[in-house]
Structure formats: structure tokens, C-alpha cells
Amino acid sequence: MNRGRSAGPENRRALIAAAREVFAEGGFAAPLSAVARRAGVGQGSLYRHFPDRIALALAVFDDNITDLEALRDRPDARMSDLFDEISEQAIASTALIDMISTERHDPRAEELGARVSAVVDAVLVRDQDAGRIRASVTGGDVMLAVSMLAFLLSRTDHDERPAIAERARRIFREGFATDPDVSA
Questions:
Q1: Residue 94 is part of a domain; what is its CATH number?
Q2: Which residues make Cβ contacts (< 8 Å) with residue 141, sequence separation at least 6?
Q3: Which of 87, 85, 82, 109 is nearest to 98 (CA)?
Q4: In this structure, are 39 and 125 located in the same domain?
Q5: Less Cβ crowding at N or C end of the chain, within 10 Å?
Q6: What is the pTM of this model?
Q7: DSSP character at residue 31
Q8: Would you state the pLDDT for residue 180?
């Protein structure tokens, strides 16, 4: 039964939830038809709410970025906390980092990437000021490390991802910290 416009908000929520799952399983390039099927709506409904893949991804990943921004706003948050949060998000789904890197020239993806970079830069400065991370480390270095991790995780079986992420966190701490024995 077609419920018309009254189903709009419910359909939108179902599409975002379905896209989160489909992107986690199949990456950013997963078929949008799979998202519509999982949400229990037609593709027409999907495209009414989200005219393209990036519009859908922005809705899905806005929560991820909001979580990172909340972590940034904690005065006690360190780069290791941020890297841990990004790692956990990447273990669940590498699609966010995938989208930021593959669609880097799309202004909407650029805006999302800029939000992530602003979080990284703020936490990095705080850790550098506290002497936990070498002054020569840049936000670009951190973003490169995150991108490399996401790339590797996207090609790793889901059940092996936590161990790979833990190894990456160790390498990150040892590579960026002023003193590897101090948690960066």
C-alpha cells in the first residue's frame, strides 16, 4: 500500500540505516539498488530523498563526523583517542574514507573531508602543545595514515580488521609521538 508523503520521513530513516549497512558490507561503491531493497522501498523513493550516491553518503556519514567533532571538543581528548575512534569507524565501514578520497573533487565530499581535517588539526595542535606529538607531524600526515589504514581495512576480512587496526595504532603511536612510550 502506497502511503504517499506521510511515509517520507520513515523512508528516509530506513534508507539511511540500510545505506549504513550496505556501505559497511560493500564499501562506498556498493549498488544503490541494494540500499533500496534493504530499506524496503523502491529506487524512485531512494532518488527522491537522495539524488545521487554522495547525497546518500553525506546523510549516512554525518553522524560519524559529528562523533569525531564531539571527541575533538573534549579537552582531555588526545590524538590517540581520535585515531582510535576513526579506526573503530573504519573497522565498521571503510566507505567514509573511501568517499572522501575517491570523490575528493566533489564540493560536498570536500566539505566532509574538511570537517575531518579540522578535527584532526585541532587535536594535533593540542597534542603538539602538550609535547605528545612531534612538531614536524602535520594534519596531512595523520590523514594519510588514516587513509592508508582505511584502504588496508577495505581489503581485509571483517573479522581480521580489529587486529590490523591495533597494529596501525601502534605504528601511529611510535611514528608520531615525541616519546613512543608516551601515549600520543
A1: 1.10.357
A2: 176
A3: 109
A4: no
A5: N
A6: 0.77
A7: -
A8: 55
